[in-house]
Amino acid sequence: MKKRNKGGIGQQKTHAFWSLTQRVNLSAKTCWIRRLIPRLSKAYPSSPSDSAAGSIPNIGFPLLLNLLGEYSIMKSISVIIVSWNARDYLRDCLNSIRQTGASCVQEVIVVDNASKDGSPEMVEKEFPEVTLIRAGANLGFARANNLAMKCAKGSMYALVNSDVIIHPGCLQTLASFLDQHNDVGLVGPKVIGGDGNLQRTCRKVPTVWNTLCRILALDRIFPDWQLFSGFEVPHRNHAKCMEAEVLSGCFCVARKQAVDEVDGMDEQFFFYGEDIDWCKRFRDAGWKVMFVPEATATHFGGASTSNAPLRYSIEILRATLKYWRKHHGIAGHIVCYLLILAHHGSRLLTRGVKRSLGMGSSIDSRHKLKEDTVCLRWLLTGKGI
Fold it and tell me: Which of 68, 84, 252, 258 is the most exposed place for a label (fewest CB within 10 A)?
């Protein structure tokens, strides 16, 4: 695991301004900032020595650093949105970016996975500044994001689901965090659901234990117990900035340098699982993955998956098994398969008994019964819907 410098810009006030301009890669055209030094010295002297030629005033120095920091993240983000039949959600998402991201967004790229609801036409008509890529087929989430990243121009990639609303200051906060922490490759905000409740987007890498906790519903029975929390980090931990094992793929910002090193998302994951695999590869390469709750967004969920919920359930199973095979070999694949088989088998049996007793007649119960039936059939026969 490689080590990276953790220093930030201007940590010591004795640094000369020229070294500061080089450390944030200011071009010759931007050296106009150097002309602010005399003005800062006159406007904010805290002692006679602060006004001396060539020195940076104690009070003016933080202001100077803010100017430099704001420049270094200016127009640095390429926002990438993959959309499939989510026109109305996509419109709201793009409006939120237009309203909040002007200071740091260089471009917005929408990859349309052959939507039939008029999504691409809406983008062309209402958002002419957006770069629209018509995939011509449903490429899946990973492949579509990779397609956009290959032509993106920014030094940071914001991967945003079409059903996300970005709050004011969110992109700026995440970009600033990456700019100030050279060892961080991926960051994610605090995400609120459409119902106003916190979504636990900070998660854990799958293991046999936390998979078992999820199957046995121990994470629901003991939601605040770290030992039984399953894949998700307890709610109380989402109030602080922390290093994460996995960030939800609904919204994250990646450093281009890190993406160039670890490569894009693994395209064998069609939909689901690619975020878990990506975060693991970032961490394995020595890059930190950080949760930054000062940045916030709303995620409604289900904008695309609601169009084919049973297919989505099968894709979750497929991706989960692929992840275990990739990172734990054939033995891990078999263990995971048996755990999932037991999970859906026991749920189907329980729901079947409840329905025979007249206790499972709600729409939600009927859907879950059908979901378990479809998943179990896929596991045993490989046949989908």
Answer: 68
* Ranges of H-type helices in 153-217: 170-180, 208-215
235 pLDDT band (50/70/90 cuts)?
low
The predicted-structure confidence for 198-225, as pLDDT tens digits, reads as follows: 998 988 999 889 888 888 888 888 877 8
Q: Is domain 75-299 classified as CATH 3.30.420.200?
A: no
Both structure tokens of 376:
């179990």
**What is the rounded distance in angstroms from the CA atom of residue 28 to the CA atom of residue 67?**
16
CA distance between the termini of the chain: 44
Pair of tokens at residue 37: 């030094």
Query: Which helix H or strand E contains 156, and what residues bound it?
Result: strand 156-161
> Which pair of structure tokens corresponds to residue 1?
């695991």
88 HSE (CA, 13 A, CB side): 3
d(CA 49, CA 46): 8
Other C-beta atoms closer than 10 Å to the C-beta of 53 total 7
CB of 197 within 8 A of CB of 305?
Answer: no
> What is the rounded radius of gyration, in angstroms, for the C-alpha atoms of the chain?
24
Displacement of CA 153 from its chain's centroid (Å): 19
To the question of pTM greater than 0.85 for the whole model, the response is no
* Helix, strand or coil, per DSSP, at residue 115: coil
Going from N- to C-terminal start, the domains of the chain cover 17-71, 75-299, 308-381
> How many angstroms separate the CA atoms of 46 and 48, rounded?
7
